[in-house]
């Protein structure tokens, strides 16, 4: 039995399939090479103590009555996971968890899910316990839904768990399965933080979710996964709800087309689907911003960019572009300079690639 464990869980980027996860749809995502490291140590006391290098703060909870912290809300991502583990019969003992992250917060790269998954992997391994990978992802999602209070889908946690080097992850949120698709060589992911942070605890996310439920009910289908774009177009849905539904049906169709493009090694076709996805976010789902639109428009006319779109919940955050690796320095320089001249704001680049998912790095 070991006394300390270090686990790592990556952030994720969604390549195609925006807001489809809670509509029982499909998404193509990728884990990235940045994330959250959790160092877990046994404690004799029946407490969970979590400290963060990012904010230099510490929070402590009683293991036998864990409840959400109002003073240190950031710690609830950890406390919620421990409480969910205990509810599944996890052999609880005192824990000290130190968190370090190289993911920018608010950039839409899913730092909260990486925090949850790293916590789960470290705690489970330290207890010499085991849980199936998808069960870990679902447990972390439940912690965020019920304990933190954000009604996120399963996309972020599953992407953090199932990432593989140079592969996209096809996640199906009805069958709750993951498979991977190879990306061609010489391709990198360029994430550009618009400088406008996104905050999903705002009302827009829950409002969009409710509109999707309304659309499915009006179309008499269990979820928008079961509707087609043609069906939505010919329906007499309320015009706003119709646009929301068109985004979801279109995204599901683009994900399946994207999978076929990757299987055919047709990266150009994949890029065009990314641009089409962004247009739908902008016009139908209205979860883009003028800054994100500007980044995508600049990317579209930059040599070496194959495709570009907003990634994550939207309403701020980042874009993801599929680019030719050898042109990365020129692409970054051109987009940064043109973005600054158009918006007066700076965009922070992260050059990354699809990377391995959550894992234990070290045991002592």
Which key terms come to mind for this protein?
364 residues, alpha+beta, Ribosomal Protein S5, domain 2, Alpha-Beta Plaits, 2 domains, eight-stranded mixed sheet, four-stranded antiparallel sheet, 10 helices, 12 strands, 26% strand
Polypeptide structure, described:
- Helices cover about 40% and strands about 25% of the residues.
- With about 375 residues, the chain is of the alpha+beta class.
- It has 2 domains: about 5-180 and about 355-364, Ribosomal Protein S5, domain 2; about 185-350, GHMP kinase, C-terminal domain (Alpha-Beta Plaits, 2-Layer Sandwich).
- Strands 1, 2, 3, 4, 5, 6, 7 and 12 form an 8-stranded mixed beta sheet that branches.
- Helix 1 (about 75-85) crosses helix 3 (about 135-150) and helix 5 crosses helix 7 (about 240-265).
Question: What is the topology?
Answer:
Blueprint: E1 4-16, E2 26-43, E3 47-52, E4 57-62, H1 76-87, E5 94-101, H2 111-126, H3 133-148, H4 155-162, E6 167-172, E7 177-182, E8 187-193, H5 203-218, H6 229-233, H7 239-263, H8 267-285, H9 290-300, E9 305-311, E10 318-324, H10 328-343, E11 348-352, E12 359-363
Parallel strand pairs: 3-5
Antiparallel strand pairs: 1-2, 1-12, 2-5, 2-6, 3-4, 6-7, 8-10, 8-11, 9-10
């Amino acid at each position: 039995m070991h006394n300390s464990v270090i686990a790592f869980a990556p952030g994720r980027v969604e390549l195609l399939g925006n807001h489809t996860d809670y509509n029982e749809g499909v998404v193509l995502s990728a884990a990235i090479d940045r994330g959250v490291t959790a160092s877990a140590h046994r404690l004799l006391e029946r407490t969970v103590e979590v400290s963060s290098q990012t904010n230099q703060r510490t929070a402590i909870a009683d293991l036998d009555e864990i409840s959400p912290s109002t003073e240190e809300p950031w710690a609830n991502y950890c406390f919620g996971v421990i409480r969910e583990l205990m509810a599944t019969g996890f052999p609880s003992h005192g824990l000290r968890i130190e968190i370090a992250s190289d993911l920018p917060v608010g950039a839409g790269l899913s730092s909260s899910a990486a925090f949850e998954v790293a916590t789960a992997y470290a705690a489970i391994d330290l207890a010499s316990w085991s849980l199936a990978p998808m069960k870990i992802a679902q447990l972390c999602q439940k912690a965020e839904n019920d304990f933190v209070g954000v009604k996120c889908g399963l996309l972020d946690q599953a992407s953090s768990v199932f990432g593989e080097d140079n592969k996209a992850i096809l996640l199906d949120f009805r069958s709750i399965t993951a498979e991977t698709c190879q990306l061609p060589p010489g391709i990198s992911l360029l994430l550009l933080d618009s400088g406008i942070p996104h905050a999903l605890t705002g009302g827009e996310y829950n409002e969009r979710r409710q509109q999707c439920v309304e659309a499915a009910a009006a179309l008499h289908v269990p979820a928008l996964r079961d509707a087609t774009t043609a069906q939505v177009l010919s329906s007499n849905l309320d015009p706003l709800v119709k646009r929301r539904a068109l985004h979801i049906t279109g995204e599901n169709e683009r994900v399946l087309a994207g999978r076929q493009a990757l299987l055919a090694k047709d990266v150009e076709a994949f890029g065009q689907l990314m641009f089409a996805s962004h247009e739908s976010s902008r016009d139908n789902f209205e979860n883009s911003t003028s800054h994100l639109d500007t980044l995508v428009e600049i990317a579209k006319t930059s040599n070496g960019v194959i495709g570009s779109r907003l990634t994550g919940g939207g309403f701020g955050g980042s874009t993801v572009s599929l680019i030719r690796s050898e042109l990365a320095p020129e692409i970054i320089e051109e987009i940064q300079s043109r973005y600054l001249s158009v918006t007066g704001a700076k965009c922070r680049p992260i050059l990354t690639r699809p990377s391995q998912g959550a894992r234990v790095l070290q045991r002592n």
